[in-house]
From TrEMBL:
Protein name: Spore coat U domain-containing protein
Source organism, top-level taxon: Bacteria
Originating organism: Pseudomonas nunensis
Spore coat protein U/FanG domain mapped to chain residues: 15-151, 177-315
InterPro entries named in the record: Spore_coat_component (IPR053167), Spore_coat_U/FanG (IPR007893)
Length: 320
């Protein structure tokens, strides 16, 4: 009789929850340009930060229950090949409301996070996610950036419900796991290249060269690159002169490196290297501009074409 009474007290309504530490799912930010990394917070997440639970105990989570996660690392952020670091923050949910401080235990049982995740509300195992957001302002070189986080999980909660919602036992345990985070930074540039205007003149000989023109580039920190200018849309195949067009008429012109007479082109030595910049020569600075001077002129050894507005479009390309 006593045995039957014991069954009546324990079986009706009793549901057991169990948690364990499992292998994590890595976080990958993907490949991003250095400019995007520096100017905009990038977000990513993992659906599995190492805590897996089953059960149905939402009504029994009290102030005495906890699910602590303590994140530590030997690094201060994502470390790249040249020693640059990309800082980022971890969050307990998909907003910035609940940041995780490294080395400080964060309780996922507070603020309804465990409830919202449904970690204890399903017989199917569910895992705790963690969200990440990079810190704006990281001026870094291109390459693969990585960090391995150590996550120590510790929990203590009611793991079984009896008649009258009486707690029949507690799941108390802990464990450690690791979480890898990676982000690939790609080379990129911001380019400032004003249009060239020769003005107007009645005859070819009256056009004056355009001098003091500059192209400004702010390229990824540490990047060595070259800058090329295409031959335009109407270039002469023989002699390589660029041409502007108006109707069926042409006006030959060209663009030259610095203040000299060497044509600035798009192939081989006709390009300009980052080390050839007039201002800040060398590899890219990331946050600072490198300035390339040039001049342009209309060739005077051509017949004056009919009056009109002559136009051409030249493509500037940067090669890393």
């Amino acid at each position: 009789m006593k045995w039957m009474l014991w069954l009546a007290l324990w079986l009706p309504g009793s549901v057991w929850a169990l948690c364990s530490v499992v292998s994590t799912s890595p976080v990958a930010f993907g490949s991003l340009s250095s400019i995007a990394v520096r100017t905009t917070s990038q977000s990513s997440s993992t659906t599995n930060a190492g805590l897996s639970c089953t059960g149905s105990l939402l009504s029994l989570l009290t102030t005495n229950d906890h699910f602590y996660a303590t994140v530590t690392s030997t690094q201060a952020g994502l470390l790249g090949p040249t020693g640059d670091v990309i800082g980022y923050t971890l969050y307990a949910n998909n907003s910035t409301s609940y940041p995780l401080t490294r080395g400080v235990a964060f309780d996922f049982a507070r603020n309804g996070i465990i409830d919202a995740l449904g970690l204890l509300g399903s017989v199917v195992p569910k895992t705790a996610p963690i969200y990440l957001g990079t810190t704006i302002g990281s001026n870094v070189a291109a390459g693969i950036y990585t960090e391995t986080l150590s996550i120590a999980w510790s929990w203590n909660y009611c793991s079984g419900i009896g008649i009258g919602n009486v707690c029949l036992g507690r799941d108390i345990n802990s464990g450690n796991t690791t979480l890898t985070v990676n982000l690939t930074v790609a080379n990129d540039c911001t380019i400032t290249a004003p249009n060239i205007s020769f003005g107007s003149a009645p005859v070819i000989s009256a056009f004056t060269p355009v001098t003091g023109q500059t192209i400004n580039l702010a390229c990824t920190k540490g990047s060595a690159y070259t800058v090329g200018l295409s031959d335009g849309q109407q270039a002469v195949s023989v002699g390589g002169r660029r041409r502007m067009i108006s109707g069926g008429n042409y006006l030959a012109y060209d663009i030259f490196k610095s203040a000299g007479t060497t044509r600035w082109g798009s192939v081989g030595s006709a390009r300009r290297a980052s080390s050839d910049a007039e201002v800040n020569p060398g590899n890219g600075l990331g946050t600072g501009s490198q300035v390339f001077n040039y001049n342009a002129k209309i060739y005077t050894d051509q017949t004056t074409p009919p009056a009109g507005t002559y136009l051409d479009s030249v493509v500037l390309d940067v090669g890393f």
